[in-house]
Amino acid sequence: MINHKGTQIIKTERLLLRKILPDDAEMVYLWMSDPDVCKYERWSPHQSIGYSHGYIVEVFDGYKSELTYQWGIQLGDELIGSVSIVNVNDYDQKAVLGYCLAKKYWSKGYTTEAVRAVIHYMLFEVGLNRIEATHSVNNIASGRVLQKIGMVLEGFAKQYYYCNSGLQDSNLYAITRKDYGENMK
C-alpha cells in the first residue's frame, strides 16, 4: 500500500535533504545555469537568478501536494543540488528518479549519498516497490551513481530521450524494495 508523505526532511551523514525554498534562488542558479551540469538535462541552463526563482516558486507550490517529491541537497549552509522522484504510479507501485548536482561537488559521493537516502525513503516509508532511472550512455558518472546504490542495469534504449546534447542512447536501471533490502545487508 502506498502511503504518500510528500517531501519530508531526510538527514544523512553529511547532507540535509529538504524542500527547495524561494530564498534558495541564488544557490540554485549557480548549478542550474552551468552548461556542464545541464548537458544531459532536458531543461536549458537558467539565464538569471530571477528565472531560477520562478522555477522554485513552481516547485514550492507543488509541495502543497503529498505527491510531490523534490529535495534540495544541502551541504553545510549551501544548497548544492537536487533529487526528485517523478512519474509516481500508485497502481504499479513505481516511480522515476532524477538528480542534479553543482559541478564543484562532483565525484565526492554526495549524489550517491542523497539518492540512496531518497530511494530508502520511497521504498520503505512511502511504500513503492520499484524505482527506475535512465542515463545517457555518455554520462558515465551518472551510471556509476546508479550502480553504487544497487540499481540493476535492465536494458539499453537507442535514441531514448532528447536533451541539451541532442538525442541520447540510454541505459535503463531499476531497483526493487527486495533488491534494495538484500543489497543493504
Any overview of this molecule?
The protein is α+β, with helices and mostly antiparallel strands and 185 residues long. The model has no long low-confidence stretch (mean pLDDT 92). The two termini are 24 Å apart. The chain has a single domain (10-183), classed as 3-Layer(aba) Sandwich (Aminopeptidase), CATH 3.40.630. α1 packs across α3 (49-62). The longest helix is centred in the middle third of the chain and has 17 residues, at 110-126. Strands 1-2-3-4-5-6-8-7 form an eight-stranded mixed beta sheet, with helices on both faces. β4 and β5 (94-101) form a beta hairpin. The protein contains six helices and eight strands, in the order ββαααβββαβαββα. The protein has helices at 25-32, 35-38, 49-62, 110-126, 140-148, 177-183, and strands at 10-11, 16-18, 69-75, 78-89, 94-101, 130-136, 152-163, 166-176. Residues 15-178 form the N-acetyltransferase domain. One of its GO terms (molecular function) is protein-N-terminal-alanine acetyltransferase activity. It is an enzyme of class 2 (transferase). Its EC number is 2.3.1.267. This is Ribosomal-protein-alanine N-acetyltransferase.
